[in-house]
Amino acid sequence: MPRLDGTDIETHNLGGNFSFTGARIAGLGATEYTLVDIEVDMSGSVSPFLSDLIAMIKASVEACRKSPRSENLLVRVAAFSSSYPGGINEVHGFIPLASVDQTAYDRLSAGGGTPLFDACYVGVGAANAYAKMLFDQEFNANGISFFITDGEDTGGAASPAMIKAEIARATKEEFLESHVSILIGINAAACTAALGRFQKEAGITQYIDAGDVTKGKLAKLAAFVSQSVSSTSQALGTGGPSQAIAATI
Amino acid sequence: MARRGTINVHLEGRGAMTLREANYVTSGGEGSIYRTGKTIVKLYTDADKMARDGMPEKVKALASLKHAGIVAPQGLVLDDSRKPVGFYMPFVDGEPMSRVFVSDYRVRTGFADGDAVALTQSMYEIVEYAHSQKAVLVDANELNWLVGFRKGAAATASVIDVDSWAIGRWGASVIMPSIRDWHASSFDAQTDWFAWGIVAFQVFTGIHPYKGRIEGYKPADLVQRMKDNASVFDKRAKMPLSVRDFACIPGPLLDWFQTTFQLGKRGTPPAPTAKGKPAKAAQIMRAVTTATGGALVFEKVFARGGWHVTRVWANGAARLTSGEVVDLSTGGAIAHQVPADAEVIKVPEGWVISLPTQNEILFAHIPFEMVGGAGGRRFADQPVPLRRVFRAGETLFGVTDRELIELELNDVGGRPRMIMDRRWNMLVGATTWLDDVAVTDALGNAFVVLPHAGGISQIRVPELDGGTIVSGKAAGRFAAFAVISGQGNFYRIELTFDRTFTTYQVWTGPVDSAELNMAILPRGVAATITNDFEITIFVPTTGVMNKVRDTGVSTAMKLAAWGERIVYLIDGAVWQMRMAP
Description:
The complex is a heterodimer of chains A (249) and B (581). Chain A is an alpha/beta fold and 249 residues long. Chain A contains 5 helices and 9 strands; from the N terminus they run βββαββαβαβαβαβ. In chain A, 34% of the residues lie in helices and 25% in strands. The longest helix of chain A has 24 residues, at 215-238. The model of chain A is unreliable at 1-6 (pLDDT under 50). Among the domains of chain B are: 7-90, 2-Layer Sandwich (Phosphorylase Kinase, domain 1); 95-282, Transferase(Phosphotransferase), domain 1; 283-314 and 522-581, no CATH class. In chain B, a hairpin with a 2-residue loop joins strand 41 and strand 42. The mean pLDDT of chain B is 88. Classes of the chains: A alpha/beta (249), B mainly beta (581). At the A-B interface, helix 5 and strand 9 of A face helix 3, strand 13 and strand 14 of B. Strand 9 of chain A pairs antiparallel with strand 13 of chain B, so a sheet runs across the interface.
């Protein structure tokens, strides 16, 4: 079982000023993993519902524990805001769910602009890079990335084209058996069109407008996240859900 | 999705029940699940389809299954007009089976190999019972099995989703690709055993039998590999380090797994509790790509349950904590009750072991034909009283008060004797005897004593003066030593001699401890691990060095040579390490 006292976490550079961390691969106990990356907006505009947003992240991660494949998840959570150095604050890198300390999310605070593109780029890039390391050690992996934002990008180093290239690389190079990316807008009615455009330009699998922030909607969003994670992981382990048997086999 | 408000239903044989939103659990393709206390209610989304599929009759057929591990429908659920809308079954608590595949979970909960035997035996008995009732499980994938595990009690299995079983006129409807027997044209007891095997194998080892990496297949080519019988038993298969040792699988079952998954044979498996040795020990091959672009391959060579290997000789003999010495190439016992300070050499007729006792040193000859038997050592007469025995390569030397004497086995006429060959004067009391090499401290002047084909060379090495030599190894023209300086610091000295053993090149470097974690191969290649994640492979005579960074490497691996192979001891087992092309 990984010891998360610092010795079982390694830092990896992604190029530029971007980096991420992940559990030391030699210490992993399963033979295949679903890499779950959650990038969450911590710009100043989320201040009014910051506590609900943090509660939503906690609920998402907590609900993943109920997945039959909870032991096969490596979860990374990062916040993005221009107030962080480099725009990204990695709360924790890819670590086993059992090692996640949820109190770490309480330390997040809102402020600054929205380096959404950077967050997406680093999120997918981190999954790609870690998947490559897993692949090299004969592990199987797939991935799912969530980008939760309440607004458009306000500037950063990455572009939609860079994100698109990284997403394409995720499955082209086959380190990841599959990769799903989901852009989620919350309280983002004013920029739904722009986010939809960004989704297409960046090649993100899906855009979901979660509507205005209410406790109920955030709870549903948490359930959506955990269900998506669970089904992604089951697809890795079993080759997909049970399939109808054809008349002839 | 839960229906709004309450739903009044009638449970056949139980009476009326009200289902509330709070009872809602989940929904699937066919219907919704509710839980009230110890009862689970499944309501079909399309009650008409339920009728068309003949589910009321099927539920009655399945209700006849009486087994504690089968979560079978117990009766129909009727609506107000007494129309069947679902069925009910007992609630069973348990962990999803997929969790016990993962070592992290096992460590956290104390789930051990013995629990894996108990769990798979429980699954086995469930499948056996179902077949005795003419039912076929069809889709018993890991998500349809639950584990009941409490430390101190035998692990048990429960199977759910029983309404999808084939029974009577109701055939198979769905199956998960990962447990499907892609060679079968219909679903029956044999395909159930194949599916059982897939899940049981993961319980033991943590890996699906058609995963890991085989050159030519992509990671997602699971079905193709199943069709091609390209399993983890394939010689080309490489697996992650997290895979558990196949030796944890009971022998007869391991044989069945191999013939089923790799050879494509089908049949009823032996019960997991059936004891016996496997016909052929399965090897685990693990490989990891290194920073230099090659791959380090780790292969398990030998392990003996309950006993750890403490030492490996370059001739392939290994001593266990039990005192048994075995031949690594066959696993056969060479000798028993061998003390830790014994030496083992291989001679043309068999093995010779020096056996130091309190009063004397005995020599035993074990002819090859005796290896693997209960005994058969023959004690060899020794020529003179000896203080100790020194071994270098496959030669034993007797050490007297002032001489080093080359010993040779003479086993003619049924009377084995150790006869004396060449002899050299030595300052025996001032000599430190190490592996394949010795160092004499002659009044503060260090001499390396290095046996070789031409005899013994005693070479003056000032670099060793004043230090305390705590360990050393040598082979060919290379020798390495761990030394404690007068200030108490450890350091390593490596010497590479010329062909005449008169001059040498020296290298001095750091070492963490008294232990020299190094293997030296006869062909002149050496390997050493001084830091986690890095092994240094080098050729002392040429200076060529290759530092291989790999997360699979750790200082816990104790290196040794076995012929031209680099092996290491870890967790009491012997593994081979090599670089793949």
